[in-house]
Amino acid sequence: MDKIDYERFLKSMKEFNCLEPIGSLYEKYLRENKAKSENKNGGLTSIVEVKPPFSSLVEIICYCLNPNHYHFILKQREEKGIEKFMQKIGTSYTMYFNQRYDRSGALFQGSYKSIHIDSNEYLLYLSAYVNKNNFIHGYNNADWEYSSLTEYTKKNKQEKNLCNTFPIIGQFRDSLDYEDFMNANALYLKDKKEEKYLLEN
Description:
About 50% of the residues lie in helices and about 5% in strands. By secondary structure, it is mainly alpha-helical. The chain has one domain (about 5-20, about 55-200): Alpha-Beta Plaits. α1 packs antiparallel against α3 and α4 crosses α8. The protein is globular and about 45 Å long.
């Protein structure tokens, strides 16, 4: 509905991508603030939790948050990592959204759909689809900040750095070379309405 909702989803993507349960984001916020307060006022040493890379459920390769749906390209790091990540995201965000807008029940229609990316060509093609999904669906915001597009084009103003861009960018001369590839494919996808093919192949 607004910037706050998008930012909350992005925070969920970061915080819930872990093996360990963290409770709600509000509970995590209270714990961190308490530790900071004790350190400041009582001279106590606070423990800062730094999660090693291997503790994440998934690597986020690409994402795009749209007004009524979202897309991810994920690499699973743990057994059932994608399933657990999607469950955590869906549950936490639905609880947040229902509380904020005084509603109840499911927020997302049905369970998520997934496909296995079985070739490098398909990965590159899908990266263009996801990174430019806002454009493909006709929202036409060239600088859409709730997408990994800014990480791939080096126009990341907020320094979100949620993605591992190397599997994609590492195959191109630079970010401008990838941007040319992405824009050409996104234009084709928008013209051909290829979403059905992409998600059912």
